[in-house]
């Protein structure tokens, strides 16, 4: 058998203890810094966000409905600065999307100031639901049997029936759709029109509208649709088991 190699020299016991102590001390410092970083970064982010918000609130150029709420200004106080059309009042905040803000007083019952700060188009408007949130301005009572929503595009799996970037409305549909990836199966649609004969094709019955004529809230929807030689004022509100669709039309200056 070949001879065994000579054993490696061993470090003195005192030196080994010193190195082991330095190793544990290094690990302790590392994990302590890691813990401080985990705690400091979120707190620092929140602090910086609050500082930015405070600076924005103090800016004289701000015009944000959320900040008006933070400052304690009431919605009905805006009527002192802006004139509502005759017979109407301001129903919701200005969400900076060009929508109509005024409505007849009866559609604000029961009176709820908080309701005016609900933006039903929040999470809507992207090129596809996966890029926007998949939300729709559904009209319903709390825990209502069904929901109604304006329809601006064909509805199928992973596609919402309404997109606030569209400028044509095809009608109103009753939907039970709980999420965008489930789609609908033959939803009921109500399509307002001035045509003498029904328009069967989906694209043919689309009526253009201006964003400034559209009013959307959790309990009431209104739009002014342009049709052949006139326009249709379509409204939508809801009860527990059904919805109401009052409409009025005007052709060539005649109601």
List keywords for this structure.
alpha+beta, 255 residues, 20% helix, 3-stranded antiparallel β-sheet, Beta-galactosidase, Chain A, domain 5, membrane, transmembrane
Structural description of this entry:
- The chain is of the alpha+beta class.
- Among the domains are: 19-50; 119-237, Beta-galactosidase, Chain A, domain 5.
- The protein has 2 helices and 12 strands, in the order H-H-E-E-E-E-E-E-E-E-E-E-E-E.
- The chain has helices spanning 13-58, 65-70; strands at residues 89-90, 102-103, 147-151, 168-169, 171-175, 188-190, 207-208, 215-216, 220-227, 230-238, 243-244, 247-251.
- Strands 8, 9, 10, 11 and 12 form a 5-stranded antiparallel sheet that branches.
- The longest helix is centred in the N-terminal third of the chain and has 46 residues, at 13-58.
- The radius of gyration is 31 Å and the shape is elongated.
- The relative contact order is 0.10.
Query: What characteristic shape results from the CA principal axes?
Result: elongated
CATH top level of the domain at 119-237 is Mainly Beta
Provide the CATH topology of the domain at 119-237.
Answer: Beta-galactosidase, Chain A, domain 5
pLDDT < 50 stretches: 65-77, 251-255
- Number of DSSP-assigned strands: 12
Please give the CATH architecture of the domain at 119-237. Distorted Sandwich
Order of helices and strands: HHEEEEEEEEEEEE
């Amino acid at each position: 058998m070949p001879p065994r190699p000579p054993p490696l020299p061993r470090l003195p016991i005192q030196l080994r203890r010193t190195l082991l102590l330095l190793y544990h001390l290094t690990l302790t410092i590392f994990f302590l810094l890691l813990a401080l970083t985990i705690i400091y970064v979120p707190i620092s982010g929140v602090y910086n966000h609050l500082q930015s918000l405070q600076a924005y609130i103090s800016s004289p150029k701000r015009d944000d409905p959320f900040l008006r709420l933070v400052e304690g200004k009431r919605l009905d106080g805006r009527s002192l600065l802006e004139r509502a059309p005759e017979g109407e009042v301001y129903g919701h905040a200005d969400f900076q999307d060009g929508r109509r803000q005024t409505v007849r007083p009866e559609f604000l019952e029961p009176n709820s100031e908080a309701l005016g700060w609900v933006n039903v188009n929040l999470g809507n408007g992207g090129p596809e639901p996966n890029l926007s949130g998949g939300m729709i301005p559904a009209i319903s009572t709390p825990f209502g049997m069904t929901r109604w929503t304006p329809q601006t595009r064909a509805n199928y799996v992973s596609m919402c029936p309404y997109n606030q970037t569209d400028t044509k409305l095809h009608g109103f549909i009753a939907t039970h759709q709980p999420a965008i990836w489930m789609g609908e199966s033959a939803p009921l649609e109500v399509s307002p029109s001035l045509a003498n004969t029904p328009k069967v094709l989906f694209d043919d019955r689309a009526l253009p509208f201006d964003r400034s004529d559209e009013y959307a809230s959790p309990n009431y929807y209104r739009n002014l649709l342009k049709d052949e030689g006139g326009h249709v004022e379509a409204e939508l509100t809801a009860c527990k088991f059904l919805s109401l669709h009052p409409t009025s039309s005007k052709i060539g200056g005649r109601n």
